[in-house]
Amino acid sequence: MLLELPRHTEIFGSVKIHELQRVIKLDSGGFENPRACDITWDDIKSILKRLAIIVPVKNENLHLLDGVLRAIPFDCTIIVVSNSDRVPQDIYNMEKEVITSIHNLSQQEFISIHQKDPEVGFAFHDVGYDSLLEKDKTVRDGKSEGMIIGMLIAKSLGKDFIGFVDADNYVPGSVREYVLDYAAGFCMSKTPYTMVRLHWRYKPKVVEDRLYFKKWGRVSEATNRYLNLLISTCTGFETGVVLTGNAGEHALTTNLADIMEYSTGYSVEPYHFVYLFDTFGLKAEEILYPDAFNAGIEIFQIETLNPHLHEEKGQVHINSMLLSSLSTVYHSKLCNDHVMSELLDNLVDILRSWETPPQNVIMPPIGGIDADSFTKMLESHAETFTWLKHEGVMEGVIEEGYLTGKSVQSV
Ligand code: GDP
Ligand code: CO
């Protein structure tokens, strides 16, 4: 892959945020290139084997899920965490059929689990992590809650990198690119504490019967503006470095996943920045994680070559995303009166004037959890847990053609 070199890196305490890097080409010549960052296929492939891709899904069109799963590179393990309806129709069962069919044909490794399986809640309770549980000990609704289930399973598999891909993407080829972009980001990083966040080149919309290649959405524009303002008011120098505040498509090293806190639902992505600023930024009061402090935390922001075409979920969804995203900034330790009043101006349509943005529920780091025993509990008790392993040998696949003689693949 050929990527632009980051032109500038904003250093904010121990957090290094690299400026947006465009994908120049999805492949490359594989030589020393002083003008761009050339990442070889072998290097990317060695990351893919150590990468788990988590697909959170809730009642999405099965055709879209099918395309997404088929596009994720073979070397990655795919973990599907579903919160889809089980009555009146069991959508989770249909999702499992899609997964099984791809696995049977490809032998790719898959794990799937349903977020509301009572055993998932019991397993969290058993390992001492109650902050995402309802009173009846089931896991709350929410994308972030599903992501945490997936991260623990990825950890128990010994994966070093964890990435996320939404299930509602219309273009399988773009999903494949996202995963390769993650791997490229990890190839560039110099610290075990790294996050790669994607920025869409375009997010096409239908406007008056034509496709319009829109660059910015209202939520991401606002989120980025206020995240940047947090840095600017702290350093005294204006910056626009943050362009991926709401990046649903992102990946991180397991080392970093262990020490992050997670905000509930859709506020999880902007809160990554707020948490890192508060905990590792210029005004961090306490050194909580000395290793990460010393090694530094790198954030790569990559502009994809492919546009992002996904299911539109309507104005209510957009408003709730805007509110929960800006709430994370409002409740940051770095948020001063100036940022607060600008934020409230933006939310005036959604909040009644006397209200302040409600604080999102924050879930503590997962580093202390025994992920192995969590996954073992799911494996032995959870009815919805399915693990389709990569057997490595497929017999009688290729009968003719010039590959004859390699009909038994051993990997
Ligand atoms: P947007 O693309 O950021 O507007 O958000 P989406 O509504 O597309 O959600 C992102 C992904 O999270 C999609 O694949 C959803 O199906 C999935 N998702 C949404 N809510 C939940 C949930 O409660 N649990 C799980 N596991 N996934 C969810
Ligand atoms: Co979406």
Describe the structure.
The protein is an alpha/beta fold. The protein is built from 13 helices and 17 strands. It has a single domain (2-216, 247-312, 364-403), classed as Spore Coat Polysaccharide Biosynthesis Protein SpsA, Chain A (Alpha-Beta Complex), CATH 3.90.550.10. It has helices at residues 41-48, 62-71, 91-106, 118-126, 143-156, 172-188, 218-235, 254-259, 268-280, 290-295, 315-330, 337-346, 371-381; strands spanning 2-4, 9-12, 15-18, 21-25, 36-38, 51-57, 77-82, 110-114, 161-164, 194-199, 203-207, 210-214, 250-253, 262-263, 297-303, 362-363, 386-388. Mean pLDDT is 92; it is low at 403-411. The structure holds guanosine-5'-diphosphate (GDP) and cobalt (II) ion. Cobalt (II) ion (CO) binds at residues 166, 168, 310-311.
Structural descriptors:
two-stranded antiparallel sheet, disordered C terminus, binds cobalt (II) ion, alpha/beta, single chain, Spore Coat Polysaccharide Biosynthesis Protein SpsA, Chain A, 37% helix, 13 helices, 411 residues, 13-stranded mixed β-sheet, globular, binds guanosine-5'-diphosphate
